[in-house]
Each structure stands twice: as C-alpha cells, then as structure tokens.
Design a protein that fits this description.
DNA Primase, Chain A, single chain, DNA primase DNAg catalytic core, N-terminal domain, five-stranded antiparallel β-sheet, binds zinc ion, 609 residues, 5 domains, globular, Dna Topoisomerase Vi A Subunit, Chain: A, domain 2
C-alpha cells in the first residue's frame, strides 16, 4: 500500500518536531549528557532504561528493546495510526497536509468511523440546545444543577425518541446507513431496516486520546431501563481502554500528579463545573488494568470517588486493587450511604467535597477501617487482611511490595514475618498450578482475593449484555496492529466467557455451534476440544461446570501452551458475574467465522462457508 504522505513531508514533520518535548508529554525525562532518560512507558520498570537522543531524533528502550522516531513513539504511546501521528505533529507546526492526503482504504475506514461519530455528536448536541427537541433534556440537567458552560464544554447532547430520527439526520449529513451501523449509531432490525441505538437519552461523547469521538454513553432521563447505555465495543472503541474525560484531563492529571476517578459521566461534569479538571470516569465497566496504566503515564496517584452505597464501596475496593497492582497509589474516599459525588458537589458544595477528598484513605487503612466499622472482630479483620495479601501478591515491583507489606503489618498489627510467610502461600499473579504442570489446581488459595464487602455485586447494566457486538460484516479491514481486531484476542474473549459461565450454557452452545471453526493457537485448539469433551460427557449432564472439568483433567491433557493459555483466561477478572455469556460467545464466534471466510489465512481456503 502506498504511503499516505510523501517521504518529504514525513521528513519535514520529523525534523521540525522536538522529540524531547513530545516524549515529555508521556514520560518524565531527566537530562543525562547528550541524552534524556526516563521510565519506559511501554514496559514496567523501576530504573530508567528509556533513552531519548535528540541529536538523532530517536528513542530507544534498553529494557524492552522498543525504539524508533517521534512518529512511532506517538503511535505506541497514544495508540494511534501513522497518519494520525503525522497529523498530530503537523498541526502545531503549521504544516498543511491536505494536499498530501491520499486516503488509503483502511485508514479511510477508521477516519470514516470517527467522522460518523463526530457527525452524530454534532446532531445530538444541536438537538440538546434546540428549543423544540431538547427542552426535556435541558430541564433535567438544569434541575440537577448543571449550568450551560459545562454542558457545552463537554459536548453533552440529546438523542430524541423515534427510531428513524437519527437515520434521517445522518443521511442529511452524508453518513450512510452501513457506516452508521458499523459505528453502532444505528442497529439493524430483525425485520430489515435499522433503528437508532440511543433514543430519549442524554448523550455523553467518549473521546479517545487524540480527541476523536470514539463512542457514546447515554443516560435515560425518566424512569426506564437500563439507566445507562454505551456504544458497543469495536475495533475503534474499547470501553475498557478509554476513560471518559481523559482527553481533556490528561494535562491536569500530569500537573497535579493525581487523577480523580469517578464512575459516572454526571459525577465528572459536576466536579468539572466546580473546578476539578483532573477527573476521569470509567465508561460503564469496571476499572481495568489498561485504564490504570493510562493514568499511570501521567500521574502516580489516583483518588477513587465512588458512590456511597455497597456497590460503590465494592467497586472502590476492587479498583484500588487494580490500581495498586499497576503501579498507582490509590486513595479511597468514603461517601455517606446513598450519595454520589455529583449530589455532594452540587448540593453540599465544593468545600464539603474538598474536605472529603482530604480525608481520602490509602487502600490498607481503608480496608482496616472498613473492618472496624463492621464490628472489627477477628474474622472480619482476617478477611480484610487476606484481601490485602491477595493484592500485595499481585504487585510486581519487589520494593513496593515490601513497603506495602510493612504498611499492612502495622495497620493490622500482625508480625511482618508472619505476613511475609502468608504472602508466600498466597495466590500469585499466575496461579502456581498453572506454572507447574505437575501441580494440581488445588494449590490455589480460594478466598485469597475475596473482597471484604460480601454483598451482591451491583450487577452490570443492561448494555453489558450487548457490548461485544461485532463491528462490521466481513470483519474490519484495518491491517495495522493498533486498533485492528485481533482474532487471538477475540478467541481469548470467547473462551474467558465460556469458562466463566458455571451453568455451562456458553460451553454447550460453543460445542454445538463451532461448526469446524479453526482456532489460531494450540492452547485455544486444546481448550476447544476439552469443552467439546465436556459437552459430550456424563459430568456435564450431572452438573459439573466446564471449568471444573478442565481443572480436573489439568494434568492429563495438553502442554505448557495450553496451561498458559487457560491460566491467562482465568486471570480475566473484569468479566462481570451477570454477563450474558452465551451471547458474548456467539458474538465472538460470529466475528471469528466472518473473519475466516472474508480473509482466509495464508492462502488456505479449506472452508468456503
Ligand atoms: Zn521499555
């Protein structure tokens, strides 16, 4: 494929960009003679092996071997494509690229996706401020205490009811139906035609790091379910990798060395309105490792400000665990029961919020005070401490692990040696039974990572049931590593969900519907045949779950690849308990099957169907 830009223009963009300044937006650099050093943003490390050499306009990491020029740095660091990186660099240099743009097919697709979203965002924004269409939405937001400025700053919109309204507006704006369906703005209906996915909802555009609209969150304004709806994940939009508001908060986050993490779009808006600019929100999913690493690039600290109810508490403890494992220093703010951050900042004022933020506790003191609040008896404390140990076991940095362990010993008044010994027995990031093929799965320590709040999980919003919808018929065409759908990842998704489903319905459906689909890795192939064996077995009829079946046969089948593959799946903790596993499995399967028939690998086309 011909390059999108000529070599001349690329050379000019590279020459005129200051690589040190660009890298500095992501990495703290210290000058060391003719080079600059810092902690590599692409692998975990505690001593700097990441070098920028301005004289050669290059960067290199001696730890992970990554390296390149300013363009490849931006591509890696921001997860963007080559042309996007060139565009991003050219903008402040006043280099006009328009005459050089020759749209390459796959790039065209990515651009079209974002453009469709941007057009939709504009349409919904106009509808919000339009006298005729948006009054209910504007009244709702005004009643909740939101002023015009914050709503305009964040491009808040309104999706009116009527399933054909959006299609009509998009058509007028030149976005065709097929593209709108790919972007999940419209969905195909069973009876032919399409309908608008978001209807009667306040719309929050979710932007990626290059400020393109990648997807949307939508909130219902009256009683209706689900309260929140989000665009489905696709190759250009992944809720677990983006943070709402990060595009505009990242500078603030770097400056303040701290991010404020909330769970709701409205929480973010309320805090922004009151002057907090370092806020980010999860987009309707649990806080993920990717999101933790996104924050970690800019700041070492994160303050978790979640709803003051049991679900919020549980989410906060879980998120603090993810944060701590991924190199962030989390603090948790405890809100009174029934209140969310937006209520507090709007109804009680910024001073009350500031006071609450000042009272934020570190993870370990927080768990300790939680145990105390629950009566503080030995069992409660013991469970809290086990939770702490589970988290500590997942911290890779040895020094940090030691310090956190010391803190736990002090906080829970237990001897450090005892804790250290217990830690050795705790669950490791990769279960030991998976590391050592001769050891059975019983070596795992059940309960090690059970959170201390024993209440039912809040339950995913309805959209979780639909979010793994495949993107486009035939599978996305983008060839680039970044953003392209990765069949290996889809396979992992599929099997992670199948194994998580203890009822076995997803496994049974997989065995029945696989239809000879070839899988990419040996591990996946082995697991598939295990699941098929399970489906045909007496165990499945007598209620043995697929996971139990797999674990029972752990030592007698497969090899290291298989065991590695399966144990990685079991580490996927972000799958909510109440997911529609069968649906996710089917969506993944459909995507894989389409991918196969559209692009037979290495010229083999054994299966034309
Ligand atoms: Zn590195």
């Amino acid at each position: 494929m011909a390059p999108v830009f000529s070599p001349d223009i690329i050379a000019r963009v590279k020459d005129e960009s200051d690589i040190v300044e660009i890298v500095r937006q992501h990495v703290t650099l210290k000058q060391a003679g003719a080079v600059y050093k810092g902690l590599c943003p692409f692998h975990k490390e505690k001593t700097p092996s990441f070098i920028v050499t301005p004289g050669r306009q290059r960067w290199h990491c001696f730890g992970c071997g990554n390296g390149g020029d300013v363009i490849s740095f931006l591509m890696e660091a921001e997860g963007i494509t080559f042309p996007e990186a060139v565009e991003l660099l050219a903008r402040p240099l006043d280099i006009d690229l328009s005459s050089w743009l020759k749209e390459d097919e796959s790039e065209g697709e990515r651009r079209a996706f974002h453009r469709a979203n941007e057009v939709a965002a504009g349409i919904w924004c106009d509808a919000f401020w339009d006298e005729r269409t948006g009054s209910a939405a504007r009244n709702y937001m005004a009643d909740r205490g939101f002023g015009e400025k914050v709503l305009r700053d964040h491009d808040v919109g309104w999706a009116p009811g009527g399933s054909g309204w959006l299609a009509e507006q998009l058509k007028k704006a030149g976005v065709d139906e097929e593209l709108a369906i790919q972007a999940d703005l419209l969905r195909s209906s069973d009876h032919g035609g399409s309908f608008a996915y978001f209807r009667n909802r306040i719309i929050f555009p979710i932007k990626n790091i290059s400020r393109q609209v990648a997807g949307f969150g939508g909130r219902i304004i009256d009683q209706g379910e689900p309260k929140y709806l989000n665009s489905a994940d696709s190759s250009y939009f992944s809720k677990g990798k983006l943070l709402y508001g990060f595009d505009s908060s990242r500078m603030s986050i770097s400056r303040e060395k701290s991010a404020l993490l909330v769970e709701g779009y409205l929480d973010l808006l309320a805090l922004a309105q009151a002057g907090w600019s370092n806020v980010v929100a999860t987009c309707g999913t649990a806080f993920t490792e990717d999101q933790a690493r996104l924050i970690r690039r800019g700041a070492p600290n994160v303050v978790l400000l979640f709803d003051g109810d049991k679900a919020g508490l549980k989410a906060a403890v879980r998120s603090a665990d993810v944060a701590l494992r991924n190199g962030l220093e989390p603090k948790i703010v405890a809100l009174s029961d029934g209140l969310d951050p937006a209520d507090i900042v709007i109804e009680q004022g910024p001073d009350v919020m500031r006071e609450l933020l000042r009272g934020a506790q570190g993870y370990i003191p927080f768990l300790r005070s939680l145990a105390d609040a629950r009566g503080g008896d030995r069992q409660v404390k013991e469970r809290a401490l086990r939770q702490v140990l589970g988290t500590i076991a997942g911290i890779e940095d040895q020094l940090r692990r030691e310090y956190v362990l010391q803190e736990a010993a002090e906080e829970f008044d237990v001897g450090l040696d005892v804790l250290r010994e217990s830690l050795r027995m705790e669950k490791k990031p990769v279960p030991r039974w998976a590391r050592n093929p001769n050891e059975g799965p019983t070596a795992r320590v059940p309960g090690a990572s059970e959170p201390p709040s024993p209440e039912e999980p809040s339950g995913p919003e309805e959209e979780d049931l639909q979010e793994r919808r495949p993107v486009r018929p035939g599978g996305p065409m983008v060839k680039r590593r970044i953003g392209a759908p990765n069949p290996a990842l889809i396979e992992q998704q599929l099997f992670a969900h199948v194994l998580k489903d203890d009822t076995g319905q997803a496994a049974r459906a997989f065995a029945a519907e696989r239809a000879g689909l070839e899988l990419r890795t040996e591990g996946a192939r082995q697991l598939a045949s295990e699941l098929e064996a399970w489906a045909a077995s007496n165990e499945s009829r007598s209620g043995v779950s697929p996971l139990k079946f797999v674990e029972d046969r752990w030592n007698s089948v497969g090899d290291r690849d298989y065991r590695g593959f399966v144990s990685r799946l079991l580490e996927k903790e972000e799958i909510p308990d109440q997911t529609d596993f069968v649906q996710v499995m089917r969506d993944c399967l459909a995507t894989l099957q389409r991918g196969r028939s559209a692009a037979p690998q290495t010229g083999r086309s054994s299966d034309p169907g």
